[in-house]
């Protein structure tokens, strides 16, 4: 329901295969599926097209969990007032974007990131470009924001 961000000093990106903290997070959050993607012009097929797609404002019907193993980039998310917030991601950082949040991703000037993608269950890659306000995931996220505002959070 809400955005979570772990700064890199809790996780060991160099030893992610054996990191007990990552193992515990995966167990506690039921992140049963994982893969690793490298976003770089020499490593990612259809790089230019994919970069443009990642930067299109969109949402997903499931949470999006990313753990940066190397490199860096930015996730932009919309706040409750529909303004962009830029989140700088670097090696060791993990982010959970809740289902229904509008967001986009871009590389920084290094043009390289290697990230672990985590899912509860089987991965669903479908991105719904804005406007996508009629999906139940979006309505649930907006309800969460309204409740937060009502409770003064």
UniProtKB/TrEMBL annotation:
Keyword terms of this UniProt record: Amino-acid biosynthesis, Cell membrane, Cytoplasm, Dioxygenase, Iron, Membrane, Metal-binding, Methionine biosynthesis, Nickel, Nucleus, Oxidoreductase
InterPro entries from the UniProt entry: ARD, ARD_euk, RmlC-like_jellyroll, RmlC_Cupin_sf
Residues that bind Ni(2+): 58, 60, 64, 103
GO molecular function: acireductone dioxygenase (Ni2+-requiring) activity; acireductone dioxygenase [iron(II)-requiring] activity; iron ion binding; nickel cation binding
Membrane topology classification: Peripheral membrane protein
Metabolic or biological pathway, per its Swiss-Prot or TrEMBL entry: Amino-acid biosynthesis; L-methionine biosynthesis via salvage pathway; L-methionine from S-methyl-5-thio-alpha-D-ribose 1-phosphate: step 5/6
Catalytic activity, reaction form: 1,2-dihydroxy-5-(methylsulfanyl)pent-1-en-3-one + O2 = 3-(methylsulfanyl)propanoate + CO + formate + 2 H(+); 1,2-dihydroxy-5-(methylsulfanyl)pent-1-en-3-one + O2 = 4-methylsulfanyl-2-oxobutanoate + formate + 2 H(+)
Enzyme Commission code: 1.13.11.53, 1.13.11.54
SUPFAM superfamilies: RmlC-like cupins
CDD domains in the cross-refs: cupin_ARD (cd02232)
Self-association state and partner proteins as the record states: Monomer.
Record's protein name: Acireductone dioxygenase
């Amino acid at each position: 329901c809400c955005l979570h961000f772990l700064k890199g000093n809790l996780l060991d990106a160099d030893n992610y295969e054996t990191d007990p903290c990552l193992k515990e997070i995966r167990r506690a959050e039921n992140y049963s599926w994982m893969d690793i993607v490298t976003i770089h012009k020499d490593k990612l097929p259809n790089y230019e097209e994919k970069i443009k797609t990642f930067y299109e404002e969109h949402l997903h019907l499931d949470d999006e969990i990313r753990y940066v193993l190397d490199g860096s980039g930015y996730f932009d998310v919309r706040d409750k007032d529909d303004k962009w917030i830029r989140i700088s991601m670097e090696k060791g950082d993990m982010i959970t974007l809740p289902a229904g949040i509008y967001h986009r991703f871009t590389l920084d000037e290094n043009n390289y990131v290697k990230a672990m993608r985590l899912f509860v269950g089987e991965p669903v890659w479908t991105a719904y470009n804005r406007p996508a306000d009629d999906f139940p995931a979006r309505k649930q996220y907006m309800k969460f924001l309204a409740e937060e505002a009502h409770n003064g959070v």
